[in-house]
């Protein structure tokens, strides 16, 4: 039996990633960006002279910047990393949810001086507002839930700050997000920060890595994959959203249908073990928050599904949860990791 899961379900882990090299300093050429729709697509045009306004549409909201923001908060390490790689280190006045995942080694020391506003949850309203940001960058809209004690987007606006939500984390996009949505975020943030050249290089690197995976697995016979989240003895399936597109981009055939009714409103759904046994996946992908979390999940899967092909062939693939958040370069890492685990002979 499959039941819709709660949107609060989650898990997390320290990264397995191919480290990206740090990119050059911010390019200073001003530009104007005009985006339409939900921020999934957009066009940018260079403009002459200083002080040109950058305007984009993000999650259906229009954001406008007359100058590059100089007080920025990254609401998750994944967003903090992206901002630093875009050259915004000196403009960061806060980083949030710092305990969720470590920053990559090559930038961790640089980021050490950025004030930490929270560790395991989004910062309290007062703490975020006290940092005095003019731009807050978040993986999802959840980080702005006033009912949870967080600053809402409207409250930020009243205090002179604008909120940018990862394209794949917009409410109306969450269940249909794609890996390539991060390219939109790179372009949007590069325009806002007046760093188009850095953004172009970062985007080109991501596209080349995705293209390399596509080429490597082009002729392989696709394996059936179940993507799950284990919390204690509770089992959830991932059938939609950025998580599911990562599987597809890595060459896996998801045994759960994103168009199924249980994934209509949310990308995950609670399932019984029989759902996995009946589908007999060749591989099981699961998200983890660290070694203890990984070992617990492996033990559960091996104990619960001893006769499933994924367990029999020891094809249980652990992915850091931080690499599954919308709007993170970790999405590319996850694609590479899963593809290499599914088809080691292709690499």
UniProtKB/TrEMBL annotation:
SUPFAM superfamilies attached to this UniProt entry: Helical backbone' metal receptor
Domain Fe/B12 periplasmic-binding: 71-347
Superkingdom of source: Bacteria
Residue ranges of coiled coil: none
Gene3D superfamilies: Nitrogenase molybdenum iron protein domain
Matches recorded under PROSITE patterns: FE_B12_PBP
Stated family: Belongs to the bacterial solute-binding protein 8 family.
Protein name: Iron complex transport system substrate-binding protein
Organism of provenance: Nocardiopsis mwathae
